[in-house]
Write a structure and sequence with these properties.
Strand content: under 5%
Low-confidence stretches: none
Mean pLDDT: 91
Oligomer: single chain
Number of strands: 2
Order of helices and strands: HHHHEEH
Strand order of the largest sheet: 1-2
Distance between the termini: 16 Å
Number of helices: 5
Helix content: over 70%
Largest sheet: 2 strands, antiparallel
Length: 171
C-alpha cells in the first residue's frame, strides 16, 4: 500500500514537473523572440527559468529513482556476482538516503525563512517568491529519500532470493 502511494505521488509530481517544463519553454521562446526581434527581452525570464529548473529537477527525482533512472556503471556491475551487485545497489541506495537527508536538513530552515520573510529573487518588474522553490526541494527530497528506503527493502528481499532488481518499484 505504501509503495503504491509513493509510486502514485512520484507519477503525479512527474506530471506537474512536465507541465512546468512545457510552460517554461514558452517563456524562453517569448524571451528569445523579444530579445532578437524587438530588442526587448521578456522581463524576469532569468529568475523564472532558474527557479523553475530547480522545481522541475526535484519534482522528477523520485520518479527517476523508482524507475531505475539514476546513473550506475553497468560495465562494473555486470562483471560482479549477484551478491556483489546486490550489495552495491544497497550501498548506492544508502548513499541516496544520506544525500537527500542532508538536503532536507539543509533546506528546512531556509524554507521557513523564505516563508516568514517573503524572500524573493529578482528586482523590478518581476519578483519570484523563493518559498515554492524551497518547498519543492523539501517535498522532492523527502519523497526521494522514501523511494530509496523502499528500494533498499526490495533490494534486500531480492538478494535473499539470490537475485537483484534492475529497476525500481514501478516496473
Amino acid at each position: 500500500m505504501f509503495e503504491k502511494s509513493l509510486d502514485t505521488a512520484a507519477r503525479a509530481l512527474l506530471v506537474v514537473a512536465s507541465i512546468l517544463a512545457f510552460l517554461l519553454s514558452f517563456v524562453v521562446v517569448a524571451d528569445v523572440i523579444g530579445r532578437v526581434g524587438f530588442n526587448s527581452p521578456l522581463k524576469g525570464t532569468p529568475e523564472l527559468v532558474s527557479s523553475t529548473i530547480v522545481i522541475v529537477c526535484y519534482l522528477m527525482a523520485s520518479y527517476a529513482i523508482l524507475t531505475g533512472g539514476m546513473l550506475r556503471v553497468d560495465a562494473i556491475m555486470d562483471r560482479l556476482p549477484v551478491f556483489g551487485r546486490g550489495l552495491l545497489d544497497i550501498f548506492g541506495s544508502c548513499l541516496g538516503i544520506l544525500l537527500f537527508a542532508i538536503i532536507i536538513v539543509g533546506t528546512w530552515e531556509g524554507f521557513w525563512h523564505a516563508w516568514d520573510s517573503g524572500e524573493y529573487e529578482g528586482e523590478g518588474a518581476l519578483r519570484v517568491p523563493m518559498w515554492p522553490v524551497r518547498l519543492a526541494v523539501l517535498v522532492g527530497s523527502t519523497l526521494s529519500l522514501l523511494c530509496y528506503v523502499v528500494l533498499i527493502k526490495r533490494q534486500v528481499l531480492a538478494l535473499r532470493q539470490g537475485s537483484v532488481i534492475s529497476t525500481g518499484v514501478s516496473h
